[in-house]
Amino acid sequence: MNLEALRDRNPDHWMKAAAIRALTLDAVAGANSGHSGMPMGMADVATVLFEKHLKFDAANPNWPDRDRFILSAGHGSMLLYSLLHLTGYAQMPIEEIKNFRQWGARTAGHPEYGHAEGIETTTGPLGQGIANSVGFALAEEILRARYGKKIVDHFTYVIAGDGCLMEGVSQEAIALAGRQKLSKLIVFWDNNNITIDGEVSIADKTDQIDRFRASGWSVFDCDGHDPEDIDRAIDAAKKSTKPSMIACKTHIALGSAAQDTAKGHGALTDPQVVADTKAAYGWKYGPYEVPANIKSQWEEIGRKGAGAQEEWCARFAGLSVTKQAEFTRILGRDLPKKLPAAIKALKRQYVESKPKVATRKASEMALEVINEIMPETVGGSADLTGSNNTKTADLGIHDIDNRNGRYIHYGIREHGMAAAMNGMALHGGIRPYGGTFMCFTDYARPAMRLSALMGIPVTYVMTHDSIGLGEDGPTHQPVEHLAMLRATPNSLTFRPADATETAEAWEVALEQKSKPSVLALSRQGVPAVRKDYKTKNLVAQGAYVLAEAEGKRQAILIATGTEVSVALEARDILQAEGIGTRVVSMPCMELFEQQPETYRRRVLPAGPVRVAIEAGVRQGWDQWLLGERGKSGKAAFVGMDGFGASAPAEVLYEQFGITAQATAAKVRELLGSK
Amino acid sequence: MNLEALRDRNPDHWMKAAAIRALTLDAVAGANSGHSGMPMGMADVATVLFEKHLKFDAANPNWPDRDRFILSAGHGSMLLYSLLHLTGYAQMPIEEIKNFRQWGARTAGHPEYGHAEGIETTTGPLGQGIANSVGFALAEEILRARYGKKIVDHFTYVIAGDGCLMEGVSQEAIALAGRQKLSKLIVFWDNNNITIDGEVSIADKTDQIDRFRASGWSVFDCDGHDPEDIDRAIDAAKKSTKPSMIACKTHIALGSAAQDTAKGHGALTDPQVVADTKAAYGWKYGPYEVPANIKSQWEEIGRKGAGAQEEWCARFAGLSVTKQAEFTRILGRDLPKKLPAAIKALKRQYVESKPKVATRKASEMALEVINEIMPETVGGSADLTGSNNTKTADLGIHDIDNRNGRYIHYGIREHGMAAAMNGMALHGGIRPYGGTFMCFTDYARPAMRLSALMGIPVTYVMTHDSIGLGEDGPTHQPVEHLAMLRATPNSLTFRPADATETAEAWEVALEQKSKPSVLALSRQGVPAVRKDYKTKNLVAQGAYVLAEAEGKRQAILIATGTEVSVALEARDILQAEGIGTRVVSMPCMELFEQQPETYRRRVLPAGPVRVAIEAGVRQGWDQWLLGERGKSGKAAFVGMDGFGASAPAEVLYEQFGITAQATAAKVRELLGSK
C-alpha cells in the first residue's frame, strides 16, 4: 500500500483514522496482548461511518433513537474503544485506553456490554454480533410500527469479519434478515482475506457476495481505505429496501510489517514495529497522545447528533402522556402495574379449575394473560410453534407487511433465534421470548451463555423437557440439560410442576431486569399439585413445602416439574405405611440458593432422609441431598444416569425407574426398613 | 398430483416406492406417532438411488467400501427402516417395523447408530447428518489416498430437508465440503417447501441453488417423483469434480389428504387417511404386507452389490499382509502395539526433563509421538492451530492436491468440525481429533452430544480451559464448561495437571472404542507435578494420591489441571504449620467414579476435611466433597462462582481467590484453627 498517496488524497480523514490506528497500537503494546490488525484495517470505514452517517450523540449515549453500532468482530475491540474515546464518551477517558485488558478496566479484551456506554452488545464469540443485529433491526421495525417514525427511526450498522461469516449462526442470521427484509440493517464485511491460521482460502472459498444475494440482501462493495468510496457505498446501502452488505476490501494491520498476514491479526507489540508503523502513518505523537486539533475534530463528530437528539426529545414530549409513560416503562424494563393482579387472578382461577395440562400448555395460558397486558413481549419459535405453545391468539405474525406483528417465525434456527432475542433485549423496548425443544438448547447455547454474561432478560421457553417427550427418542430427550443450564452463572432455570407454578415462573422471569430465564416445560399433562390459593409467589422462593408429613417426619422428597406429582404419589404410598413424608417442590434451584439460610433450613431440615426425583442426571442435586444439613448422607436420587430411549413416555418412566414405587422403595431402603 | 400417471409411467418403480410409503403409513399408524410425510415424499428418490446407484450388499452391511447413505432428515426414519427391511438386512425384519418407536426396538423414532446395521449415523437433530457427511467424504479421500482406489472408492449420499439447510451448521458443512472439493459427496435436497410451522417461505426465502453454488458445489435438479429424471441427475452428480447438490422437487405426504401441507410433515394416523392413501397408490395389501414379487425385487437390489463385494474381498486379499493388518486394525479401532511403550518412554523422559509447559503444549508433545505411530489419526483446528497445538510436524495439510494430508483447516467452524469428526469416526479407519478454545465447546455442543450418544471415539482438544486464558476476557473463559461436559453421559472429560498426566490422558482417550473424550488443556505453563516414573497409567484411575500427608492426615486437597500445582503449594504451607495434608489429583471424575469402592475410599478416606480446587463452578464437586464418606460436611470449594474477567491470568487467579493462600485458609477454617 502506498500510505502517502492515501494520506495526500484526504489528509483530514487520514489523520482521524490514524488516531484510531495509533491508539490501537499503543493500547495493544501496553497490554502486551490483543488484536491490532482489525482496527488498523477498518479504521477508514469506521471513521467515515461515524463522521458521515452514524446518528449518535456522545453526550447522550442512551438516546433511544440512536443508530446502533455492533462490532461483531469483537476481537477488534480497540476500534470501538478508540471511537468512544475520540468522540468524547464520558465513560471512555484516555485512562481506560491505557488500562486496556487490565483488571477493573472498562476496556476488556472483547467488548463487554455494561462496561461502558456505547458498547451495544458483548462480542468476541464470532458470529454473535451479526446475529444480534437481526434482533436490533427487528426491534426497530416493531417499535417504529408502534410509536411512529418520529420516535423510532434508526439504522443498525455491523462490522463483521471472515470469522463471523464462517460461523454457521451467520447463515441463520442472514437468511432471517433477508426473509424479513430488514432494510435498516447494514453489515460491513471486513474483507481482508486473513484469519488466524492464514489466508481465508485455506478453509473457505465461498463467494460471500453471492451467498448474501441468495438470501435476499443488497450487496455493495468498496475500497475500504478510500473514504469517498466508503461513503458512496453507505449512501447506496441506506437506500436499499433490503438488508445490505458492504464488502470492504481492506488490508489487515495496514502499514505495518505484518500487513496482509496472519501475524497481523494478533498483537503487534514490538516497539520497533509500533514506531515504524506510526512513522508510516505520518503520526508523530507520543503513546496515547492525540493532538488537540484531531481530538477536537473527533469530538465535533461526537456532538454532531446533539441537535437531532434535542429535536427527538421535543418530538417525544409531543407524544401522549400514556405513550410516553409506556415507552419509558418498556425501555426501563419495568412491568406494567396490572401484571401481578392478572397473575393472581389466573392462579385463583386454577384453584377452581385444577387444570390437568402439560406445563407447555400452562405456559401458553399464562402468555395469553401476559401478552395482552405487555405490548413489549415478542414471541417466537424455531419452527415448533404448535409444540412450544408460544403463540397466543392476539399476537400477529411479524412480517414485511405487518410490522406490528409480535410473533416471529424464526425458522429452524435455534441459535439465530437466541442471538436475535439477545439483540432485541439489548435494543430495549422489547421483552423477547422464544421456544424450541429443550434438547436443542444445545444449538442455542453460545447465545444463551451471552444472555447470562450480559445480564439481559431474555426468556427461553424450552418444552419437551425430559424423557417425557417419548417416542422421538434420545436425540430429542434432554438428560444433562438441566444441569448444564443450572451450571451457567447469572441465569434462572425454572421447572414448574403445574399450571400455577408455571404462571408464577413466568411472573418471576418477567420481573428480572438483568438475568435470562429458562422455562423447562413438559410435553405431557400433569395434575394440578397446588390445591390452595396463595397470594405469594411461591416459585420466587425457589423451593417450598408443598405437602407436609403427617406424623413423624421421616423423609423429605424433593422434586421438580413433572416429577412433583410422582413425589406426591410416593408420599401417599409412604404415608399409608406410616412413614411421615414431606414433599418439597423445587422449581428454581438458583432462587432457593439465594434464600436466607433460615428459610432453607425450614424447607430442608436436618434429620429426615432425602430423596430427589428429577428425570435428568444427578449432577447439581448433591448440594440439596448431602449439603444444607443433609449431612446424614441418607439420601438418594431417582432420575437418569444415561441417555433416554424411544418409546411412549409412560413406558420410559417405568423402564428408567422414575416412579412413585421406586421412590418409595428408596426411602424404605434409606430408613433401613425395606 | 396425478398418481395414476406416475404409476403408469413406470409401474415397477412405482410399486417398489409404494412399498416404502405403505410401510411408513402402517408403522406410523401403529406407533400412533412419527413422521409420515418425508418418506412418502422421498420414496422415489430413495428407490432410484438404492436400485441404480448405491453400492451395498445387504448380506454384508459393514463392507468397508460400501457407499454411505446418510438420512440427515432423521425424522423420516421410516424411509431408512423400510429400505433396510425391503432390501433384506438381517437386523431389520418386519417385526422391527411393527415395533416402530417402541421400547427395545431397533426402530427408534429417529435413526440411532448402533441399533441396526445400515444406520450409518444418528440423526434427528437437524443439520447433523449433512455435517457428518463431510467427515465421511473426507475419510474416504484420506483412506483412498492411503490404500488406493481398489480398496477405497465410494460415494456418500445424503438426504437433507429444509430444516437441515436452515440450521447454521449446514453452512459450515457446505463451505468446508466446497473448499475441499469433496466430489464424492452427493446431497439430495428434499425440496418440498414445507416445515412444521407451514410453508418454508414463512421463515426462509434463500435460493438454495445459488447458496450451494456460492460455496463451490455443482447443483442439479430433478422432479423427485420421476425415476428417469432422478437417475439422470444422480448420473450427472457422480461425474462432477465438486460436491453435488440435487434439488429434488417433491410433494410431502404424497397422495394423502395432507399432501403439500404442514400437517403432512407429522404423523398420519387416521385409519381413513391411511386407507385412502394406500388406495390412491394402488396398494391393495394389508398392514405391513409386502407382496412377494415386490419384496423379491427389493431383495434383488439388496443383493446386487454382492459380486462387487466379493471382488473387493479378493482385491483386499491381494494387499500386503502388513497393509491388510493395518486396515483391519484401524477399522477395528484397535491401537498399534507400539503405542503403550512409546507413551511410557515419553513419561520416562519427562521424569528426567520435568518440562514446565502448558498442557496444550504437552498435548502437542504427546501427539508428536502418537501421530507417528498411528497413521489413522487426523487432526485439525477451528482456526486456532497455533493456540490449540494440534498440528504436529509430520502431518501434512489435507488439501485437494494432498489427500494424504492428515491435518485439516476446518475454518472458524467449531460445530462443523465436531460433526465432521463424528462422520470420520463413523466411517471408520480414522481417529479424529480437533481443537478450539474450551469456551467454544458451546458452539460444537450439538455434535459433541452426538459423539457421546453414538458412542464413538472422537477426541476434543479444548485448550485455554479456564480464567487462565487471561486478557481475552469472560467471553473466552470457560467457567461452567467442565460441569457441562461431566454432566454428559458416556463421555470422558480429562483435565491433566502436567505433561505426564497429559500423555496418560491421551493414551486413555485413544484406548476408548465407544466413548468420546475431551481434553481440557491450559494456556498457561504448569510445573511438572509427577516427579517419579510410574509404569501404570494413573490417569486411567481417574484420581490418585499425588502427595501424601506427613504426620497426621488432617486435610485432603482435591484438584484438577492447573490447580493441582496450587494444591501442592497449599500443602507446603499447611505442612509447614504442622497440618498433615494429602493432595489428590483428579484428572477424570468419570473414570474415578468407575473405580471399585475400595480404591475410592483409599483415595478419599473419611475423616480429614476436604477442599476441592478448580477454576470453574462448584457444580459436580459435592459428590466428592460431601459424598464418598465425606459426610462430616467439613468441606469447601475454591473456584469460580460467576463469570471471569479480562486481565492477565495471574491477576485473575489472585482476584478470584484461587490461590494456595486461599486454599490453606479454607483448610484452617474447616479445622477451626484459623
From TrEMBL, chains A, B:
Short name of any one Pfam family annotated for the protein: Transketolase_N
Membrane spanning stretches: none
Catalyzed reactions: D-sedoheptulose 7-phosphate + D-glyceraldehyde 3-phosphate = aldehydo-D-ribose 5-phosphate + D-xylulose 5-phosphate
Active site residues according to the UniProt entry: E414 (proton donor)
Keyword Metal-binding: yes
Top EC class, one word: transferase
Binding site for Mg(2+): D162, N192, I194
Known EC number: 2.2.1.1
GO biological process: pentose-phosphate shunt, non-oxidative branch
Cofactor(s) listed: Co(2+); thiamine diphosphate; Mg(2+); Ca(2+)
GO annotation, cellular component aspect: cytosol
Entry binding sites for thiamine diphosphate: H75, G124, P125, L126, G163, N192, H265, F440
Pathway: Carbohydrate biosynthesis; Calvin cycle; Carbohydrate degradation; pentose phosphate pathway
Domain Transketolase-like pyrimidine-binding: 357-528
InterPro entries recorded: THDP-binding, Transketo_C/PFOR_II, Transketolase-like_C_2, Transketolase-like_Pyr-bd, Transketolase_bac-like, Transketolase_BS, Transketolase_fam, Transketolase_N
Positions that bind substrate: H35, H265, R360, S387, H464, D472, H476, R523
GO molecular function annotations of the record: metal ion binding; transketolase activity
Keyword set, alphabetical order: Calcium, Magnesium, Metal-binding, Thiamine pyrophosphate, Transferase
UniProt-annotated site: Important for catalytic activity, residues: H35, H265
Cofactor: binding details: Binds 1 thiamine pyrophosphate per subunit. During the reaction, the substrate forms a covalent intermediate with the cofactor.
Known partners and oligomeric status: Homodimer.
PANTHER family documented for this protein: TRANSKETOLASE, TRANSKETOLASE 1-RELATED
Family in the record: Belongs to the transketolase family.
Protein name, per record: Transketolase
Organism: Qingshengfaniella alkalisoli
Gene: tkt
